[in-house]
Amino acid sequence: MRKTPLKKYNSRTREKRKQDREDFEGFYQKHIQHIKNNSVHCQECGDKLIGDVSEVAHILPKSKFKSISTEDKNVLYLCGWMSNKNCHNKFDSSPNDVFKQMSVFSDVKAIVTELLDITTEKINWKLLDRYE
Prior knowledge:
Shape: globular
Oligomer: single chain
Number of helices: 6
Radius of gyration: 16 Å
Structural class: mainly alpha
Helix content: 40-55%
Strand order of the largest sheet: 1-2
Order of helices and strands: HHEEHHHH
Number of strands: 2
Number of domains: 1
Distance between the termini: 40 Å
């Protein structure tokens, strides 16, 4: 089986990536602790979560909306890669028609409106078609 090579960064881009992600460790640790301490269940399927980083899903993608990448409102708790259902992957990767059938969609739609009020990035309306 062929392995996909890891993306290589030069020293300048490696440092930029490190700066962009410096707040992520504390952000994810806070949400993982919340899951573990409060017996949190997947907001899509209802399965009990275990407190893995893959269970912390961003509503608006952190790569496109860096200004709200560590905003608590931009989070859903969805079962992750350790679950057979993997609702987090379904949320991130499904075509729009499937995404809009998810039970979390109506909640997400309301939250997106709030998030757009606080983001500093230029709005890519095509990207937001998913949430209409």
